[in-house]
From TrEMBL, chain A:
Keywords of this entry: Lipoprotein
Protein name: YhcN/YlaJ family sporulation lipoprotein
Taxonomic lineage of the native organism: Bacteria, Bacillati, Bacillota, Bacilli, Bacillales
InterPro entries linked: Spore_lipoprot_YhcN/YlaJ-like
UniProtKB/TrEMBL annotation, chain B:
Name of this protein: Stage V sporulation protein AC
Membrane among keywords: yes
Residue ranges crossing the lipid bilayer per the database entry: 26-47, 59-76, 83-103, 123-149
Encoding gene per record: spoVAC
Keyword annotations of the record: Membrane, Transmembrane, Transmembrane helix
Organism superkingdom: Bacteria
Signal peptide (residue range): none
Pfam families: SpoVAC_SpoVAEB (PF03862)
PANTHER family assigned: STAGE V SPORULATION PROTEIN AC, STAGE V SPORULATION PROTEIN AC-RELATED
Keyword Transmembrane helix: yes
NCBIfam families, per database record: spore_V_AC
Length: 133, 151
């Protein structure tokens, strides 16, 4: 029992060590200025813990993880970022989500090499984000 | 023996209820059950196409199903004796209430025994759950209409 407890607490402590950068971006576009502007915007926000930004052609997909207490206002924060990004990047299709599933899948998506498959995955994610049932 | 005498005697004899320890046990076991639920919801999100918005339904169903199995095998009773409210308040308590009533009345037949008594305890949970959900939704509707909260 004591050994099991020790093992569990060790795992809990070690998972806290897996630190990564706040903003991770994957970009497949010629316009790198876009990318840097978005990164800067997210770096400043104190409500966000981690964010994945995927930029492919004229698609901007943002999946973020909010700080625990900020999750109460998830919808508000999502809407605010959606409006902000849509205003800033008028010719781009913007999708913002604070859902864990989107964050997890976008992390996996960033490792995908095949661009066609990536685009398909992205469309699937966008569809999934709208799912209600 | 007068009533006052009886009451003092009763207070002397009755063993003290360890409220703090009971609360602690309930807190730990209840928290553990919730952690298992959280782990299951992560499992559904990682391996299936469920989002944070939709993962609640399969998670609740799985937790209730697990509690039903444990009740059937007689393990949930032990947990209930140890943790008290910690095992009754989470949704697993609902599964336990359904199955334990069904087991209790199985000797009275499948229709009138199991079927008629299965929701004896859980029926009130469903009723008050639905009623309170209605009022919560009503309050939220008012708050959204005023502009304080958002859907």
């Amino acid at each position: 029992m004591r050994k099991a407890l020790l093992g569990i607490s060790l795992i809990v402590i070690l998972t806290g060590c897996g630190d990564r950068e706040k903003v991770v971006t994957y970009s497949k576009t010629d316009n790198t200025q876009h990318q840097h502007e978005v990164e800067k915007l997210f770096e400043k926000d104190s409500e966000i813990e981690q964010v994945n930004i995927v930029v492919i052609e004229n698609e901007l997909f943002v999946a973020m993880q909010l700080k625990p207490l900020k999750k109460w206002n998830r919808k508000k924060i999502e809407d605010r970022w959606q409006k902000k990004l849509e205003k800033q990047f008028a010719n781009t299709t913007v999708n913002v989500s604070a859902d864990f599933k989107m964050f997890w899948e976008s992390t996996k998506l960033m490792e995908e090499k095949d661009q066609k498959k990536m685009m398909e995955e992205l469309q699937h994610l966008k569809k999934l984000a709208k799912e209600e049932t | 023996m007068k009533q006052q005498q009886y009451n003092t005697l009763k207070d002397q004899i009755t063993p003290k209820i360890p409220i703090l320890i009971n609360c602690l046990k309930a807190f730990v076991v209840g928290g553990l059950i919730c952690s298992i639920g959280q782990a299951i919801s992560f499992l559904y999100m990682i391996f299936f196409d469920f989002t944070e918005k939709t993962v609640g339904n399969p998670t609740v169903a799985t937790m209730v199903f697990l509690a039903m199995l444990l009740t059937g095998f007689g393990q949930y009773r032990k947990l209930g004796q140890f943790a008290g409210a910690g095992s009754a308040v989470p949704v697993t308590g609902f599964g336990n209430a359904v199955i334990s009533a069904a087991i209790e009345h199985r000797s009275e037949g499948l229709v009138l025994g199991v079927g008629g008594n299965m929701f004896k305890l859980a029926g009130s949970v469903i009723l008050f759950g639905v009623v309170s959900a209605f009022f919560v939704a009503l309050i939220k509707l008012i708050l959204v209409s005023v502009g304080v909260a958002s859907w």
